[in-house]
Amino acid sequence: MNTLDHLYEPHLTIRKFSILPGKEWFPGPSDWSLVQVETGVGYWLTGSMSVDLEAGAVLLVSATARGHIRASQLNNMTVHSFNVMPSRLTGLVTLNEQDFLKNAASQTDLAFQVFAAGSPTACQMKGLRASRNGNGLLFRLSLLQLFVEIIDKKLEQAPPSQDSGDARERLRAFLATAPPDVLAEMSFDELARITRCTPRHLSRIFFEQMGVSFSDKRAEIRLGRACDLLATSKSKVVEVAFESGYKSLSLFNQMFIRRFGISPGKWRQRYRTNGESRRSGTARREVEKIVRAE
Q1: Which of 243, 213, 217 is nearest to 228 (CA)?
Q2: Mapping DSSP to helix (H, G, I), strand (E, B) and coil, where does residue 7 land?
Q3: Which domain holds residue 201?
Q4: Does 30 share its domain with 140?
Q5: Dihedrals φ, ψ of 11, to 5°?
Q6: What is the pTM of this model?
Q7: CA–CA gap between residue 291 and residue 256 (Å, rounded)
């Protein structure tokens, strides 16, 4: 199957799912999912582990947890779920925070957590579900706040960046605070001036920090932004090119096709259905793999 055939899923939007007795439901391939049981009882199953889920309980799970919910044989289950994809929060979540959340998704104490029905987390999510403004900006920010509050202590434990005289530390401090959009618009020479080091040294320490070259990272951010705009907006392709940091439409088309094997226009046709865009975390990760592999 073509790795780009996955359709996009909604982001920071609560959806309702029904699970028949004895049947299974998978949270989906998104980076993170927060799920609350409304009615019925069931189990969270992963490997040899089984955890009881009562009505009102909340489950935080990452895509790497590789588990599913199974309804009891005695009842239907109704669950409400929303997805959080840090890579889609460009401008709000820094590169270091995105990397931390990506690593946290593979940690046992973070990748899977259950909160009892009477816990503050469960009560807060129940209150959000009852909100009448389920599509507004403040509502989406409230969902994001709920997610961040759960992992906030772990975020605080992430290694702090120190602004010392060393170029490596200056680069680390910059990457910890600068939104990805800033990096996407910056030239390599500008970053060298900020970190006060030679281009050769910067090239080496940037790769140490990010695992990819500066040009590859900037292309990843720009093309990721372009994919979002193509799937979620009605902007013309030439407008998407300019908004993504490309001053030439022909160059944008060339870079897009080289990395994805498909033109921007065909990408839009594939990932938009009836005017609505949907996105999966798996598709996003596959896009990033293709960009890095270039």
Answers
A1: 243
A2: coil
A3: 160-211
A4: yes
A5: -120, 130
A6: 0.57
A7: 10
